[in-house]
Amino acid sequence: MDKWSEAHDIVKKDPNSVRIPLTARDDTVLHVAAGAGSYTFVEELAKLMNPEDVLRPNSDQMLPVHLAALSSHHRIVQLLCSHHLLDKMTYKDIEKLFFMTISNNMFGNLYLLPGLITYLFIL
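Above: the chain's sequence. Below: its structure in token form.
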């Protein structure tokens, strides 16, 4: 699924294409790539997106980072949990992510726990 070179031209020509729902659950291209574990695609796509688009929920109120966590894509979760994105996440979304990462035992490979706990108790 790492077909970034093909998608890059589309996104560059039409930046709004990242907001187009692609599935019945209103998943955007970032939701699909994050859930599928396509690290390079997510990394490059996120560079071209503003934080509001990265944090756009689908119709199930799932963010791309939530879909990555459900599928245990550790590196993508870490990428999508940068501090500039966590600062813009709602408490509900951070809490959901926290419990998803715990239930998938993702803390052994991530330095995510301290940041999520900090955000849970500060918000």
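The domain at 4-122 is CATH 1.25.40.20 (Serine Threonine Protein Phosphatase 5, Tetratricopeptide repeat).
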